[in-house]
Structures are given as structure tokens and as C-alpha cells.
């Protein structure tokens, strides 16, 4: 075991053992146990929700500036722990060191700092007075109104395994900034760093019950949380689970923020800078083993540059070192579990059966341990095949061909998902024109870089709602109209 530390649930400001014991969290590279995580009982999920409910009135009535100050202290307390947290989150996620240090940990702190700052700004919307006529309802006059942002209440934050701390921060920071209280349910594969994060919450002086963490190895914990007396579910994960959550939440009109699966199209035109396209598309292999919902996994290439692009992508993929995520020169680490590797391999096999050509990869890398998938490139893919329609969530890129712009748009839009699409072209007006036709919540033109202030979320089966920057504050608030006569 890497860690002899004990991990407990954090409920109402106290550390409690899982009523159902514990379960092993496994390092995806070594297959060794990292530590035991608590297995919460359904009653403990209820306790966490009750604590969040009880803490809500006082927390929501604090000034936004006070809440911002607490978030800042939380970020400070978290940053002190970074040297301990990097090895822990690395071990439980299997991330390479480069990813572990940056997107797994530093980005978490930045998110708390950003929302601490945004909490200090006024997000209510003052409306111009309206001249209202006399009606049978009420006397006419000059009527003033304010659109005030009110917290939703108790928010369940349910997160996926790929970026446990950062994803949690993207929910918890805006939710707390706007005066909500939260119960966090991390993914079963890697909940340990999130539990450590709760120590920072405790140290920062957040009142008991404002921030709670419950964990468990199976769907029961999350399900109990969604069914409990909460006001909103903020969920990031797969589309099938999002659908189930939506059905359950709909019964009590619980508010929803759902960030679900993706199958990012990367449309590459004949005038594109192919070096830039290859670097962007190649991030599906080189960044966290392709376990990222926004990855450009589905290349739609103009026929005239198809062969050159494929040759360049093959060169890039072949050059990436797969293996021990702790080694400095490793670029591609393992995927999270054996189950996930088996899923990726089964989907690859369906591509072979359908007639795709495996240009690079396709075979399981020979390693002593770990759940590895080689960077893989499939060409000759038809849009209706499973490999073009379903998520791999692994280091696999598929390539389709188009002849004209309308066909490219139709292929890109021919997906149940609509999370993040990309366009590579040397013609800025074409890039913009095509972006506006893509049925996707986000479009990158000639880049996979993000703007963290931009709204983030999906069209179609990729989800409901937006967060990111100030949009995160909007997501965790209800608009209340306050109206008065002059
Ligand atoms: P997942 O299997 O859907 O699980 C996500 C979370 O939901 C886990 O905490 C899981 O815990 C919980 N869960 C499962 N069933 C539940 C239920 N019935 N009620 C409540 N909670 C439940 O997703 P994953 O495998 O961790 O992550 C990969 C997926 O996330 C991919 O589809 C990827 O595209 C998506 N993703 C989307 C975004 C985005 O922003 N759009 C970002 C990252 C990842 P248990 O497994 O213990 O049930
Ligand atoms: Mg799962």
C-alpha cells in the first residue's frame, strides 16, 4: 500500500468511518492498492444531506465577500497540501507527472481562487423601470425590478474519475460562492485526494455542513444522493448515467447541471496548417490517455489532405512513449481500470470487424503491470460505425473523409453528442462560418486551448446547462425577480 493514511467520510464537519467498511483504490499503472476508501452507508448519505440542509440558511445569508474570503483561505490551505497531494492523485488516477502536477492539482487551486474573486462582484441584474398601465390587477405606474441571483440550496456534486480534484473544484467553488451548500460524491476509482481536500476545507474554517464528502464503490452511494432531499444535481460523467439522474431528479423538479459524454469532431480543411492540426488531434493520445470528454477523437479530413494528415498523425502517435507514468519521458500512461481497457479494446475490435484500417497501435502494449492502451489511429471509418458514434474515452482517434464543406458539417453533426468540436482551416471566415453551423456547445478554431471564462457545456446528448467563469455562478443560482412601485 502506498499510503498508510486513513481515509474517512467528511460529514457535518466530522470525520466518520464508512458504515459499510472500506474498499481498495488501485493504482492503474502498478495494480497495487493505493489505500482503502470508505464505503458509505445510505444513512450516511442522508446525514451529509441533512447537514448541508441545516448549514444552508446561515451560509446563504453571509455576504458574498465573506464567502469569497473563505474560498480564498480554502485555496491557501489546499496549496499547502500540494506536495502531498500530487503523489496521491498521481497514484489513484495513473496520470503522468506532467498531468498530475498541472491539471490534476494546480488547476483545482486556481478554480477556488477565481470564484473567490468572482464572489466579490455583484451578479444581480438591475432592470430599467417599466411604465405599466392601470389594469384590473393593480394600479399603473413606473415599476422597478431587479433580477437577483439566489442560491439553489443543497447541491449534490457527482464527479467522474478523470480529473477528481479539478472537476470537484469546478462544481464546489461556484456552488459555495453563490451560497449553496454541497455534498460531494467523487468517482469510486479515485476519491482519495478529494478526501484530503476536505482537510483543507476543515482548516479553512468553512462552517460544518457547508462542504461534505461521501464515497462508495458502487452506484448505490450516488443514487442515494440523487434521491435524497437535495435541490440540485451537478453531475459530470457518462450520458447513460446522466439520463438516469435526469429521470430521478425530474420527479422532484431538482435542478440539473449535466456535463456528459463527447465525441469531438475535428474538421480539417485543405488549407489547414497540418502541423497545428496534428498537435491538436494528437492531444487525444498525449493528454491523460485520451480520458477527456472534449478530445478531438473523430477527424473529418478533406480528401485532398487526407493521406498527408494520416501520415503525420501516424508519425506523431508512433513517437509517443507509453508506460510508467512516473518516468519523465512517458507521455501516455494507463487508462483508469481493467474494465475501461476492456471497453476500449472491445470497441476497437468492432471497428476492425466493420472494416477500419488500424494504421498505428491497436495491440495491447507489453508491460509488467497496468491497464495500457497504445495510441491508436483508425482510418477508412464510416460515420455510422460504432467507432465513430461511441466514446472510447481512451487514446484512440478515428478518421473519416469529406469532399465539400456541407458534407463536413453534416458528418460532424451526425453524432448523438455535441460537446466540443474543432475546425482547422487557414481561412478565418470559413472557420467562423463552419463553427456557427456545428451543433456543439464549444468549438475550437485552430486550437485545443481553452478559455476558462467561456461558457462550457454540451448540446444534444452531451448535457444540459453551462458552467465556466461567471456562467458557473449562474448555473448554481436561481433568478428571483423583485418588483416595486416608484
Ligand atoms: P460515470 O461512470 O458516468 O460516473 C460518473 C459518476 O457518477 C461517478 O461518481 C459514479 O459513481 C456516479 N454514478 C454512477 N451511477 C450513478 C447513479 N445511478 N446515480 C448517481 N451517480 C451515479 O463516468 P466515468 O466513467 O467516471 O467518467 C467518464 C465519462 O465522463 C465519459 O463519458 C466522459 O465523457 C464523461 N465526462 C464528461 C465531462 C464533461 O464535462 N462533459 C468531463 C469529464 C468526463 P459510481 O461509479 O460509484 O456509481
Ligand atoms: Mg462508473
Structure characterization notes:
The chain has about 475 residues and is α/β, with parallel strands linked by helices. It has 16 helices and 22 strands. It has a seven-stranded mixed sheet, sandwiched between helices. Strands 9-8-7-10-11-21 form a six-stranded mixed sheet, with helices on both faces. The longest helix is centred in the first third of the chain and has 22 residues. The chain is globular and about 70 Å long. The chain starts with 8 loop residues before the first strand and ends with a strand. The relative contact order is 0.14. The mean pLDDT is about 95. Bound molecules: NADP nicotinamide-adenine-dinucleotide phosphate and magnesium ion.
Distinctive features:
alpha/beta; 7-stranded mixed beta sheet; 6-stranded mixed beta sheet; binds NADP nicotinamide-adenine-dinucleotide phosphate; binds magnesium ion
Beta-strand content bin: 15-25%
Task: Tell me the number of helical segments per DSSP (H or I, 4 or more residues long).
Answer: 16
Radius of gyration (CA) equals: 24 Å
Ends apart, CA distance between termini? 69 Å
Q: Which parts are unreliable, with pLDDT below 50 for 5 consecutive residues or more?
A: none
Strand order of the largest sheet: 14-15-16-13-12-18-19
Main sheet, how many strands, which sense, barrel? 7 strands, mixed
The residue-averaged pLDDT reads 97
Q: What's the total number of strands? A: 22
The structure class reads alpha/beta
Helix proportion: 40-55%
Q: Quaternary arrangement of the chains shown?
A: single chain
Shape category: globular
Bound molecules: NADP nicotinamide-adenine-dinucleotide phosphate, magnesium ion
